[in-house]
Structure formats: structure tokens, C-alpha cells
Write a structure and sequence with these properties.
The protein is an alpha/beta fold and 196 residues long. Helices cover 16% and strands 23% of the residues.
Length: 196
């Protein structure tokens, strides 16, 4: 187990941080990645986090979970559930299935829509919010107003998600979960109908 004594700030993990570990003034951010050239504080596997149960306040992960199959993602979620405090938040950002970037990287194994995230609630996570980003957020291009309008429309009318490929696809999707043991469902079977 890792001993966190340097900071009195709450702990936030950035899982799969790569070379762009998230920066926060509110959290003691610990980057997790296996890649030697990453900004990770701990160059370890996310499947076996060296933290005690219910030790972490928040988990963040951007463009990481799409590199794993369903069973592996379930295992990662279970490990995140273990280390998160009750009520702790878990934010995931992945490429959206409608965007070509989801398929350009041959190491992408899983593809995500809004409903995909509900397939992991049974591990003990409540969905607080999902959000579509038409372009990478924060967007730094020349068409800020257009991107804001597109983001507003797709998030205001989420049923348009199925038609997003007509307009070039949604670049990425964000899901914010909260650890909630009331959502644990040990009888859940992948492929079963989910009541929403």
C-alpha cells in the first residue's frame, strides 16, 4: 500500500494519465500509467492500485478505458470502486463511437455511447451526468461559437446522439459517476435489458 503523507488535500487519481496528467489546486493528483515516458507518479497497472480501501476522493480518466474489453473494464471499475470513498466521484472521458478517432487507433477495443456507461452501474456507481463534446474539450480552434452551439444542441437533445454521424460525429463523451453501494447488483448479466 502507498502512504500519502505529503499533502493534506484530498486524493485524486488520474488513471492512464499519459503525458498530460490533470492539474488541480483542490486535489493531490496522483498519475497512474505503465508508460515509461508518461507524467505518472506511479508507473504501475491500474488493475492493482496500491491504495487502501476507500482511501481516494476522486478518480479521473481520459481516453484510457477504450483500450480494454468489457471484462477488463469491469475489473478496472471494481478496483476503482474499492479505492474510492463512499460518495467519491469517478469521471471518465472516452472517444464517442460516432467519431472516426474512435477507430483510428488500432488499440481501441471498446466503443462508447451514452448507454454504454449504464452497463457498469451494477458495480456500485450512480451516473450523475453524461456530456457530449463535439470537439476535444477545451476546444482551442477558430470556431468557438459554432462548437458551443453544437455542444449545447447535442446535450440538450441527447436522443440526437444516434444521428450524430451525419454531422461528423461526436468527438468524445464524458460520464461522471458517484460511488453508491446501493447500485451494486450481483445478479446483473451483460446483455440484459437495463431499465432507465
Amino acid at each position: 500500500m502507498i502512504n500519502i503523507t505529503k499533502s493534506k488535500k484530498p486524493i485524486m487519481l488520474d488513471i492512464g494519465c499519459g503525458k498530460s496528467k490533470i492539474v488541480s489546486t483542490n486535489y493531490n493528483v496522483i498519475g497512474i500509467d505503465l508508460w515509461d515516458n508518461s507524467d505518472a507518479d506511479l508507473k504501475i497497472s491500474a488493475f492493482d492500485l496500491p491504495f487502501e480501501d476507500s482511501m481516494v476522493n476522486r478518480i479521473y480518466s481520459r481516453h484510457f478505458f477504450e483500450h480494454f474489453n468489457y471484462n477488463e473494464i469491469e475489473t478496472l471499475f471494481s478496483e476503482c470502486f474499492r479505492v474510492l470513498k463512499d460518495g467519491g466521484e469517478f469521471e471518465i472521458i472516452t472517444p464517442h463511437v460516432s467519431c472516426i478517432s474512435a477507430f483510428q487507433d488500432p488499440t481501441h477495443i471498446s466503443f462508447f455511447t451514452k448507454k454504454t456507461f449504464s452497463r457498469f452501474q451494477h458495480i456500485g456507481f450512480e451516473i450523475l451526468k453524461t456530456e457530449f463534446h463535439w470537439f476535444r474539450k477545451p476546444y482551442k480552434g477558430k470556431f468557438n461559437r459554432l462548437v458551443r452551439i453544437l455542444n449545447y444542441v447535442i446535450n440538450r437533445y441527447p436522443n440526437m446522439e444516434r444521428f450524430s454521424g451525419i454531422f461528423g460525429g461526436i468527438y468524445e463523451i464524458k460520464c461522471l459517476y458517484r460511488k453508491n453501494p446501493n447500485y451494486i447488483n450481483e445478479k446483473f448479466i451483460m446483455g440484459s435489458k437495463i431499465n432507465e
